[in-house]
Amino acid sequence: MQRRNASQRIALAGFYGAFATAWTCARAQSFPSKPVRVLTPFPAGSGPDAAMRVLGEQLSRRWTQPVLIDNRPGGNGFIAVTAFKSAPADHHSLLLVDSNHTTTHPHTFAQLPYSVERDLQPVGMILRTPFFVAVAPDSPYRTLEDIVAAAKARPDAVTYGSWFVGSPGHMGALRLQALRGVSMRHIPYRDFGQLYAAVSTREVDWALASVASASALERAGRLRFIAVAAPARDPLYPAVPATAETPALRDFEVSAWAGLFASPATPHALVERLNADLRSVLQLPEVAQRYRDFGYEAPQLTPEAYGQLIKRETAAWGQVIREANLKLN
């Protein structure tokens, strides 16, 4: 009798498990049933915002529901993330944030109002952009090794700029200093325009720059790219050497990325569906062309691979930030 009851319980558990799986899959297939909202800390017109609007247009067609971009800039991204955390638990709200919000903020802010692991479920990366080392057209520095040599000869005399303290440009320079054992002076600016104007006039010696933010100035002859901090040369700038080509700089890679996240309660089947749809639209020729115009890469990552990348980069940045003793609050 006990054996029969145990068998019945196992059978019922299997039935309910299969039912729950089928129900979850059905919900994933029926998604979305209303407009999908993407909360983001990026202001309208910024690079990640522009890319998300390109993708949103294609996803709207695929889903036959509008994709609404809800820009909540300011507060180091905290405003957007807080709004996302308090959104209705109907799986129709997503969050678009970048690598700073997920991999460096946990180290630079002592009181972060969210947990990347507990509050954000990776869906997929929407873009990645490598960074170039930019100098003035008449700068004496012809290579990144020239900058390193000058920094070794005159500690803290070489200057570099970034668009704010803790920005990818700042963090990337800290990584270079840690890698090569040099010390340079950081000068933060208010925005990209102010920063690259300062580089072009040699008010500051160098800065890290993306194609989206600095290519117009480079084409106008106001900036010169001397290296790309990446494992390979960029197709848009085949004459600019990659840091991987220099043995002493092989580990110096700097890029920024932005990606989508769902709430932690979102069923795995729905996350897989979102990821599959995202990767499908990233492969569309019209999207690929817009990405080439932006200077963005479109990595095809599964949610699992994206989550693992975040963990690796978080650990790597932690070491750099601790050595620099960088705290933002």
Topology:
Blueprint: H1 2-30, E1 36-40, H2 47-63, E2 67-71, H3 78-85, E3 93-98, H4 99-108, H5 116-119, E4 121-130, E5 132-135, H6 144-153, E6 159-162, H7 168-180, E7 185-188, H8 192-200, E8 206-209, H9 211-219, E9 224-228, E10 255-262, H10 268-282, H11 285-294, H12 303-324
Parallel strand pairs: 1-2, 1-3, 6-7, 6-8
Antiparallel strand pairs: 3-10, 4-10, 5-8, 5-9
Helix pairs in contact: 1-10, 2-10, 2-11, 4-12, 7-12
Low-confidence stretches: 18-23
Proportion of strand residues: 15-25%
Sheet/helix structural class: alpha/beta
How far is the N terminus from the C terminus?
65 Å
Q: Helical element count?
A: 12
Q: Tell me the major beta sheet.
A: 5 strands, mixed
As laid out across the biggest beta sheet, the strand order is: 2-1-3-10-4
Overall shape: globular
What's the Cα radius of gyration? Answer: 23 Å
Helix amount: 40-55%
Order of helices and strands: HEHEHEHHEEHEHEHEHEEHHH
Characterization of the model:
This protein is an alpha/beta fold. 47% of the residues lie in helices and 17% in strands. β1, α2 and β2 form a beta-alpha-beta unit.
Attribute tags:
single chain, alpha/beta, five-stranded mixed β-sheet, 47% helix
Quick rundown:
With 329 residues, the chain is of the alpha/beta class. Helices cover 47% and strands 17% of the residues. Strands 2-1-3-10-4 form a five-stranded mixed β-sheet, with helices on both faces. A five-stranded mixed β-sheet has the order 7-6-8-5-9.
